[in-house]
């Protein structure tokens, strides 16, 4: 056990963090020690029974970070938080990687972050700019290091997740997918969170080939009617697409419990793609995984159909 390299997932109770931990536990537990960072141990209850170790820590509390990076940690997955101060928090994380000798911070970002066209993209553009600024910075030398070690960030620019559609289950169960994608306008890029978990896990286990790289993670591009058609075919539950306007969509996001700024930002991001932006981004999923990305229809059969069958 002591001879295995330690990989860190920070924070492990986020959607991307959980996906990465589950893939690590299922496929790489014999190769690495899996260290899961959460603010409170209760936040890791859903991971009970997996071959992991749980650490309580907070990036805003430097005194707690020594335990996170103990045992010569060289790679750490950072699930960028969904908070308005996420750029500042991520900068703190990058600084901690330098201080504790972590060569490879693996950081979740967003498609077209550099375009700064939406609030989400502006946040992630600031994060990526800081990673670029700090790239090549010498990191603290660890016991087993040979030669000069430098920071080599790995950026995962994720499309919106297929799993976001599960929030629309009530309408889908009644035969309608309500979404603000207009009529025959731009296509929504989205991706299976499970594929993101697989990619994150694979990189954590062997980060060196991926250092200083940015990957665009897209499953497929679809318009509203194509989403509904995929749901119908894969679940056996008839579904048609119904266009809604942006204010209605923002109110629906808020009704799910999202703060107003996040509901508005999510709606703005969908509008960005609907208005024909970001339509020609090449997906790097197959390059990293060696297999094509999961199709939305396959996700619907795997995760949406069981819910619909019970409703």
Head-to-tail CA distance between termini: 45 Å
Parts with pLDDT < 50 across at least 5 consecutive residues: none
The number of distinct structural domains comes to 2
Q: Mean pLDDT, rounded to whole units?
A: 96
Oligomeric state as shown: single chain
**Shape annotation:** globular
From the helix content, strand content and strand pairing, which structural class follows?
Answer: alpha/beta
Helix content: 25-40%
* Number of extended strands: 11
Q: Please identify the top-level CATH class of the largest domain.
A: Alpha Beta
Biggest beta-sheet profile: 7 strands, parallel
The CATH H-level homologous superfamily of the largest domain: NAD(P)-binding Rossmann-like Domain
Mind telling me the C-alpha Rg?
20 Å
Q: According to CATH, what is the topology of the largest domain?
A: Rossmann fold
CATH arch. level architecture of the largest domain: 3-Layer(aba) Sandwich
